[in-house]
Specification:
The structure is a homotetramer of 188-residue chains.
Chain A: H1 7-24, H2 30-37, H3 44-47, H4 51-71, H5 80-97, H6 99-110, H7 116-124, H8 127-137, H9 147-167, H10 172-187
Chain B binds a DNA duplex (21 and 21 nucleotides) through loops.
Chain lengths: 188, 188, 188, 188
Amino acid sequence: MARPRSEDKRSAILTAATRVIVTQGLSAPTAVIARDAGVANGSLFTYFETKADLFNQLYLELKAGMASASLEGLRPGAELRTQVSHVWTNWMAWAVSNPEKRRALTQLGVSDEITPATRAAGHKTMTAIGDLLERSRANGPLRGAPMGFVVAIMNSLAEATMDFMVQDPANADKHCKAGFDALWRVLT
Amino acid sequence: MARPRSEDKRSAILTAATRVIVTQGLSAPTAVIARDAGVANGSLFTYFETKADLFNQLYLELKAGMASASLEGLRPGAELRTQVSHVWTNWMAWAVSNPEKRRALTQLGVSDEITPATRAAGHKTMTAIGDLLERSRANGPLRGAPMGFVVAIMNSLAEATMDFMVQDPANADKHCKAGFDALWRVLT
Amino acid sequence: MARPRSEDKRSAILTAATRVIVTQGLSAPTAVIARDAGVANGSLFTYFETKADLFNQLYLELKAGMASASLEGLRPGAELRTQVSHVWTNWMAWAVSNPEKRRALTQLGVSDEITPATRAAGHKTMTAIGDLLERSRANGPLRGAPMGFVVAIMNSLAEATMDFMVQDPANADKHCKAGFDALWRVLT
Amino acid sequence: MARPRSEDKRSAILTAATRVIVTQGLSAPTAVIARDAGVANGSLFTYFETKADLFNQLYLELKAGMASASLEGLRPGAELRTQVSHVWTNWMAWAVSNPEKRRALTQLGVSDEITPATRAAGHKTMTAIGDLLERSRANGPLRGAPMGFVVAIMNSLAEATMDFMVQDPANADKHCKAGFDALWRVLT
DNA sequence: CATGAATGAGCGTTCATTCAT
DNA sequence: GATGAATGAACGCTCATTCAT
């Protein structure tokens, strides 16, 4: 229904959905999400046409948040390795300080409710990061590989690193660096 | 001793579940799985106590199948790099020729129906591979990292590689090799 | 405040449950009760959390209705025998004009779905009658017996009397009186 | 199927049914009864065509056992009151020493699975007791009442008495006597 | 006959979505 | 728009009964 009234309510629902997805999974009833958001059952459907719609929007929102957090403070003039390292560190920091968002995003990522269109839009939010990657691998061993492959590898390494930073917070910095080193070794 | 429980039927159900999970996700009705397996609705519960039980057993079966496929033909005497490469190639081949199994396994892997115990048992089937990894990274940059981190990285690279081999079958071999190279570079 | 929960609907369900229990027993599907009440399948669960909850509430409602019918028009100043006779007659009249309620109540009474708490609450609705009994037996042969025993005997006699009044309506009054006489003889 | 082979097995099933009905109610699965009896699932249906058939036969068996226990040692020549008292005492003793049988019988008695024919046959086993009753009430206040009414009253008093003997075993004898006195006062 | 796997109708309950207020 | 009751399809699981062994 075009523009729903309260932006507050919309984001309350998205926040609640994040929380609830983490604790109950994607099969959590919309009623629970609504209650957690402090709105009525049916109001959820004023803001999101269907449950799947809610999930798609949430996916995008989380992905975009993650991307913008990663890019924060980036200086385009700096050396490439420095820039990539900066992004990587931001990214890991985001994951560590937003564990719920990350977990929800992971769950949503594997759901078949998320449409290809949404996934594509999600990728777009990470274009800037992709560019850094592209330049980083330009002369490395992956120079011939499809870009998607390189991105996938980076994502995979990132996931593994995040898991260990969360799991073993005492050594978070060490894991962060180890993850970056592995990435850099793969790329260059 | 009456009609014995039929191993055929059990595996028909597991196979059906694999197929159905790929097309309908984990929320697929047990009735659909049963029909696909050619057994009655209720018979599924003769072989698996609950839907979750079915999923857990399927997870293990798939994981074990994947592991044993990866280890096939391995010569313990060979050079380390050769052995790892052999396993890697087997693994990728399994993924390419069993895309349904792989996708089902991925879905099951993120489900919260799969118990920690099942996951632990799943890990055990991959011990031999873990040992190779351990030896491979022994003098490499990850020598100080927790083993779980190394495993996670390998899994991540494997996932990314599989995706691209399936997505772009014409260059499957190239992707396979690129994946392995990336792994080896990270480890050594 | 949206559509409010309708007391009408709630009692339609209770009435339907009474009817259906009489014809189909306690194993009657909730779906049948709902249909009989003219509401949707799922609406029953808006008013009663579970089938057992419905049964417990119905039990209480019937018991309370029976008690209050029995006490109607009672004059506390009257002679004891008159009062007991009055209650007895009311009680029998209730049974005769509400055969379905009585049969449902009987069925519910023997069900193990009815919780001790519900039974206790049911007893409370009959306190006034118990008091009359207490005073009636005070100097009679049962003066030493536990009160519960006396109550049980009264209930038993009442049940037997009701059965015969329903079974042989032509002589209902005679049976009613015979039942009362038996009771009075036991008590005094 | 005509005459099943093992009488042992048949009665094992009946005994198991009694036990199981007490603990799980009439909705207990036949499979549970079979397991408790130590026979296979399907064998139960060799001995009893349906679950309802099993229940009907069990009802009769229990009722007959109760009746014959009540009549044991009865001396037809003795004084009427003595005879009735003797039967009553036997009856109560049976109830106290066979609480499971009694409870199962109670449950079966209110079930609508028990056919009128079965109930009629059950009554027949108690004819001798009925005769005693008939003679006892011949000159009493219930002389004009239908015999069924008298029987019902006796049953009711018996039930109430049994309940209290079981509930308060220390005073079982006292309750037994009180019950009999009440009965005798009603009859004569 | 004994066994226990096979069958499939049936049930209580849930929940996304709609709609009366 | 907000609310929450109403709806009914859908699901996991049970269980009396049948039947292959």
